[in-house]
Amino acid sequence: MSSIKIYMNGKLVDQQDAKVSVFDHGFLYGDGVFEGIRVYNGKIFREREHIDRLWDSCKTVDIKMPMTKEEVAAAIYQTVEANGFTDAYIRLVVTRGEGTLGLDAHLCHDPQVIVIAQALSLYSADFYEKGIKIVTASTIRNPSDSLSPRVKSLNYLNNIMAKIEARVAGCEEALMLNHKGDVCECTGDNIFIVKKGKLMTPPIDACILEGVTRNVVIEICKELGYECQEAAFTRHDVYTADECFLTGSAAELIPVVEVDGRAIADGKPGTITKTILSAFGDFVKKDALR
Ligand code: PXG
Which atom of ligand 1 approaches the CA of 185 most closely? Predict the structure, then answer.
């Protein structure tokens, strides 16, 4: 297996040497935060937005970042270049560091900053052309006053439980509802619906992660002259939508053609979805021109 270089706390190390302690609270408790970022044509996509969100996640869970934002961006570029990538998927991970077997975060003094760069493993072209099927999970999204979904924490068990339900049902993704029963997001993507030419996506206070891709799509809607509301809605609105799609740094934009066994409209990706997907491609290309 070919070895890639991993950035760990200021150094590039071989994959087999990139190790954290078993006493790291990231390992013991999922105590840490992360970002999933795209690099297109050698440029970090929405660098400021991802790094600001990482800082916000750290603030809420009270991890003191041992680097500046500029140093983190430089570490990402260093990792991408060391592995010879021009396009890559980046996993930026910050753990609380080594502590004891107890929960006391104050005993952890050395947060670990890790950057992993991988070649883009794109989803199959079929997903984008034909769309995917999703199913509602019985696992509800963490309520904000329990663990805010706005924090991109290393503790993804809530999402993983829902993703297991999706796989058991033979679906690619699971639709998660919040504690009020409103539509929230999928396990690793935000959701949009289209009805009568207007778009809708759940608001930040619906217990979602404020997705970077979601916000780009909202911008694209403005540019293209589509109305896009950030408003609460229910599964009824999803079942009866004309179109539905998901957004995320890993998937970019994927059409959804079936939810809980109900075809969305005629069961094919919609025209507005395709228009936004193509505009997203243009947006990325323009952004990557340096
Ligand atoms: N909601 C959740 C819960 C997420 O984890 C998104 C929305 C989309 O956010 P961005 O900023 O990426 O547009 C995410 C992020 C993967 C993977 O490898 C994807 C995410 C997280 C972890 C892994 O598929 N998506």
Answer: 1
